[in-house]
Structures are given as structure tokens and as C-alpha cells.
Amino acid sequence: MARIVIVDDELSQLKLLRDILKRLCPEYEIVIFGESKAAMEYLLEHGTEVLLVDIRMPGMTGFELLSHIPGDEEMMVVVISAHSDFEYARTALRKGVDEYLLKPVSKKELDRLASQIKRHVEEVERGRRKSCRPPDFFIPRATDPKAWKEMGEEELLWAIRDGLLAMEGERPDYPIGDAASYLALLLKQGAGALHEHYLTESGLRQLSGMERQMAGCKTFGELSEAALRSIRQVFRVSRLDHASNMADSMERCKCYIERHFSEPISLTELSGQVHLSPAYVSSMFKTFTGVGYKEYLTQVRLRHACDMLRQTGMKVYEIARETGYVDHLSFIKSFKKEMGLTPGEYRMMIKGGREGEGNDR
């Protein structure tokens, strides 16, 4: 996950800027420091894609901080100052600062800054993909995030495992860190293609944790374990959400049938109500009810028919019409097949066999 570091000794301004950028750039990690020395130590160890720094701070100024950290083309530097002095701006330019903003920073300027940050990070990640991409040890589909869904979990796991084994065998000197960086970028893209959860702030935080685990690996074996564990987690979330979505769609189908069982309902019509294909809806019924769509619709209709036979004096042909049958003979046939009795026999049994109540008309 890309990182933004903010350094400012005015804590209220520091926290405000953090909160605004967190809202504008939720996909990035944001780290804040109230003084330059701690920020310098952090930057020397971890680096960052974006650095926002105040100029006038006690102990070490923002310009002095920039002098103590190595120049990095991948780092965008933004100076934020309450002073519009030309000398400050000129010094900033000499130090390769990308942007110079005056406090208080307006909403318009912050929106523009967020756009600049996103463009910068996209360029950095694009460059990293080219530079840190391991040699072609992986099959092409495994390195195409859009192909992950079609590949499926098991095939992808084998492809990543085999690729890392080949890399270790043929290029044991290949930097583990570069391989980890490449896999982290690939995981981010693949996870986003598999499930929209990984495009949200919560999902991106989870991916950041996976990235840190891979970055901490010292051997190809450790990296393989971390990468495969991360891929399994991504697919697990995708499966759980798929099941949840299917259950929700199934419930909507059931509700629609309950409201419209007296009308002709085709599988195509029902599928349109939940915006799914007929084949998918048919499979969904088998999964959740154990019977096909037609059988389920018949069960619902006959359940309501039994209620009418018990609770009303309606004629059998009237009940047939009310439960969606085109004629009472097909209703009687369907009823007997399911219940073992004709509608008239069922009514007579329920009502204790009183005379005249077993008529199937």
C-alpha cells in the first residue's frame, strides 16, 4: 500500500490534514509526525511515496529534514508553509520540491493535491511493476489479474508456488524484496478484480497487512507461504460474499413467488426480477431448496391450495384458478401427484368426511 507521510509541529493542523487526506485518498496509508527527527528516522528506514512537510519547525526545519534523507524520484515532496516569502519558495525549488502550498490550504487546493498524489502513485506503481517484475517464471494467466477468477483458487495457487520454486532454482540471487513487491502489487490488482471489497478502505487495509507479511519474508519458502496464504484469504472472502449474495437473491425469488403464485410465472420472468440469468436462478433453487424452480413453484401453489381447501368453501376449479393453474384438471393431477389424494378427497379428510365435501369440481 502506498504511503503518505505528514510532518508538522502544529498538531491541530497535522490531524486536520491527515483526516482530510484520509477521506480524499482512503486507499493510502497515512503516517503523521509532530517533529522532524522522528520523521527522519522513519523515512530513512521505510521511505514513502508522498511527503508533506512544514518548513518552520523547532529543532530541525523542513528543509533540513529534506537534506538528511536521500533524493528519491519515487517520492513526491509537498511543502506546506504559513509564509509566502519568495526565499522560501526559491529554496523549495532548489531542493526539488514538487508542490508549495500556503496555509491555510483551501478545499480546492486539497482536492487538486489529492489528484496529483494519485497520479504520482499510479506512475510509481507502474514503474515498479516494470522494474521489479520477476523474470517470466510464472505462467501468463497467473500474472494477469483479470484471469484470476477464471483460473480459480487451486490453479492460481499451483501457478504461484511453481513460479517461486522455479525462480529460487534458476535465480537464487534474485532479491526477495523485489519478488515480494511484485507479488504484493499483483495481489492488490487481482483482489480488486475478484471482489469490490478490496477496493474499499477496509479491504485495502487488509491487503496492506498481507503486503507487510510478504515484505518481511527472508526466503523464497517464506514468501511462498505468505503469498499462498494471502491468495486463499482473498478467494475465501469472494466465496463468502458470493454465498451471501446468492442467499439474498434466493430470498427475493421466494418473496416474489409468494406474492405472484396465482399468476403465470416463467423462469425467465423470475430471473428478470433479480437481474440474474435463468440458468443461474435454476442452479440457485437446486442449491438452496433441493428441488428445481418448477417443483418449488408447484409446492408453493399446492400449499396455498391446501389452505383454501381447509379454510374456505371455494369450488375446486376456483381454487385451481386462484393458485395459477390454467384448468382444474391439471390442478387435480398435480395435487394428487404431490399429496396422494385428489383435492376433494383431501377436503373430505380434513373436514371429517362430511357429505358433499369431496367433490373435485
What does this structure look like?
With 361 residues, the chain is an alpha/beta fold. The chain folds into 3 domains: 119 residues, Response regulator (Rossmann fold); 100 residues; 101 residues, Orthogonal Bundle (Arc Repressor Mutant, subunit A). The protein is built from 16 helices and 5 strands. The protein has a 5-stranded parallel sheet, sandwiched between helices. α1 links the parallel β1 and β2. It is elongated. The mean pLDDT is 83.
Write the layout of secondary structure elements.
Layout: E1 3-7, H1 11-24, E2 29-33, H2 36-46, E3 50-54, H3 62-68, E4 76-81, H4 86-94, E5 99-102, H5 107-132, H6 148-151, H7 153-170, H8 176-194, H9 201-215, H10 220-260, H11 267-274, H12 278-289, H13 293-311, H14 316-322, H15 328-339, H16 343-350
Parallel strand pairs: 1-2, 1-3, 3-4, 4-5
Helix pairs in contact: 2-3, 5-8, 7-10, 8-9, 8-10, 9-10, 10-11, 11-12, 14-15
In short:
By secondary structure, the protein is an alpha/beta fold. The protein has 16 helices and five strands.
Identify the notable features of this structure and list them briefly:
3 domains; 5 strands; Arc Repressor Mutant, subunit A; alpha/beta; five-stranded parallel beta sheet; single chain; 361 residues; 64% helix; 16 helices; Rossmann fold
State the major sheet. 5 strands, parallel
CATH superfamily of the largest domain: Response regulator
E-strand count: 5
Q: What top-tier CATH class of the largest domain fits best? A: Alpha Beta
Which stretches are poorly predicted, pLDDT < 50 over at least 5 residues? none
Shape: elongated
Q: Quickly count the helices.
A: 16
The amount of helix comes to: 55-70%
Adjacency order of strands in the biggest sheet: 2-1-3-4-5
What portion of the residues fall into strands of 2 or more residues?
5-15%
In N-to-C order, the SSE pattern is EHEHEHEHEHHHHHHHHHHHH
What is the CA-CA span between the terminal residues?
72 Å
Domain count: 3
